[in-house]
UniProtKB/TrEMBL annotation:
This is Ethanolamine utilization protein EutJ. Gene3D superfamilies: 3.30.420.40.
Amino acid sequence: MLARTKLPQPAVSPKATEFLEVAAATFRNPACSSDSSISFGVDLGTATIVLTAVDGQGHPVYWDSLPCQAVRDGVVVNFGDAVAAVERLKNTATSALGSEISSAATAFPPGVPEAEARACRYVLENAGITCRHLGDEVSAAQALLRLKDGAIVDVGGGSTGVGIVVNGIIVAIDDQPGGGHHLDLILAGALGISVEEAEERKRRGDQDYSHILRPGIERIASSILRQIGDYAVQSIHLVGGAVRVPHAALIVAGFGGIRTCAYPHSELVTPFGIAMS
Ligand SMILES: Nc1ncnc2c1ncn2[C@@H]1O[C@H](COP(=O)(O)OP(=O)(O)OP(=O)(O)O)[C@@H](O)[C@H]1O
Ligand SMILES: [Mg+2]
């Protein structure tokens, strides 16, 4: 059993929570919207490529995703596969929404060199989508969360990005290797199963593996603290798919002594934030 910490948890924004609950239900299933001006986002992640859509009022309209290993930590390592995945997502979305996707925003992890970040733009363009905005992933998450103060932490498949927010402005960003894939390696080793099987079991979520994953989550927590450095952060706001594992926020809070919360459907924060950017 996981030891309980008495650290109070910061309130998760009710607005962001409601957005994410509604957004999750639009998976390959467009929401009705009276507003026809739709903005699209494409998240070229290490584990998945996600296409999202919001209407002109900022309400979630649609999302879809495909597992894809064509991008590693913001670096496009297999251009053809990345383009093919975006094309597939685009075609499915075009049929589902009944409208063309001519432009979209995309994002890269903070700290990725500009030349690598530009490759994200080229992926969209080769899939027949104009890149209307190329920004960093933490700023995209903030577009949805609208934190006043604290640290936004995006724990994805391959890396952990941190943004420090002061008075609603991001004053520092960083990104370091380490995320959900590392948890898969730990689970696979502990259970004597393949990494693919570990990934599947972890995502299924029907068992609490926190007693096994705790060292891996604490390693992520230590990376978060290193990235926060000397900033006086009062609260950590976890997003990204890797923090969907049970007790992730509790373990990070206990390790760092900083109040920590994880958002529901945390893997959707950055992708929908990209569409809102
Ligand atoms: N429901 C879930 N339960 C547990 N883990 C999950 C769940 N959904 C996603 N994950 C994990 O989250 C990770 C992927 O998260 P996410 O989609 O945010 O990453 P990404 O954006 O593709 O990667 P990165 O941001 O590092 O480039 C994977 O390790 C995956 O196993
Ligand atoms: Mg990501």
